[in-house]
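hey so i finally got around to running both of the ones u sent me last week. sorry it took forever, my laptop kept dying halfway thru and i had to restart like 3 times lol. anyway pasting them below in the order u listed, first the sequence line then the structure token line for each. didnt double check formatting much so if smth looks off just lmk and ill redo it

first one:
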Amino acid sequence: MGPTGYDDYPILAKVVSQGIGLHEGRSLGLASMVVSAVFCVAVATMCITGPWMWWRRRPRGPRVGAPRGRMPVSTAPALAFALVVLGVFLPLFGISLLVVLMLDRFVLRRIPALSGFFEVSS
């Protein structure tokens, strides 16, 4: 029995191997590494400039200043479907989404001090 190579992999193993190589920046050479580096710098920049912009425009007083959500899921069935699919395929995302929805529904809306701080509409 000789050494096992890429050609001996089943199809799913080949797909996973290609995905790992693409993720690590090895599949497309220098171009992939440059794009990954630019993306990394962009994310780091947003981590710094996002809080900085909020700090400059924050409301004065006892409020968070977060924008209100005005898009009910019932008017966007594609959004609801996408959230369910993501929640199933990414269980940690689904669990955290359910926790946030439950907190919003059963805690934030029922405690007046929190409702005013987070500007939650009933």
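and the second one:
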Amino acid sequence: MMGKSKLQNGIDENIPVISISGLYKTFDDLQVLKDININLYKGENIAVLGRSGEGKSVLIKIIIGLMKPDQGKVLVLGKEVDKLDGKVLNELRLRIGFSFQNSALYDSMNVYQNLAFPLTMNVKNLSKYEVRDAVEEVLGAVGLIDKIYQMPSELSGGQRKRIGIARTLIMKPEIMLYDEPTSGLDPVTSSEINELILEVQQQYNTSSLIITHDLTCAKNTGNRIAILNDGKFLKIGKFAEVFNTEDEHIQGFLNYNFIQ
């Protein structure tokens, strides 16, 4: 796996690409997010670590404008997301890559068609040669150029995750949002996906939020870790800093997970 210190040098703490302050979200009587404050800086990976039901997915939906906050401000690439109209919001979303937990590939399309689809839908007047070059580039980046004409049903779970990431990369996003990238994968494949997340960060100059309940994923991919518990961030910092504590809620994650 490539060295973390090398990646740290690419982080610009003067440029927050996502800035969240005083964020609250409630459903009926259930307060899901409570006073969330965090900055994701240019070139940085932050792993948001929390158990199921802690509001991690709600946080992502607010960031991409699928939900509105009850209170607080969410700035993405300098724009206040919940104040944007449909056209401007869609333009902003094209600058954000979202890697779904289930990869979200179209079963009726082969790998080439799955990757070409978002490109041809959003970038007009591309020649078939330009589309093919783009597809081959991102497939090369995820190490699956030999799968270009296979159907999703012919791929392993790890390969589908990689193709899902490739489909996101084809739009050259500035921000990557990973939703449980190692969920359902064996330890070896999980390790490969973690390494790919770091390679994407370096090769494509992305800033990433990695939503996960997997401590190994958080440890290996995050320049910083943010512990989400009961709708609040308990602590944000480097892995060693975050877990150097007697706080039983934070220590509980060490018992909940197995670190490789």
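quick thing i noticed on the 2nd:
The chain has a mean pLDDT of 90.
anyway thats it, ttyl
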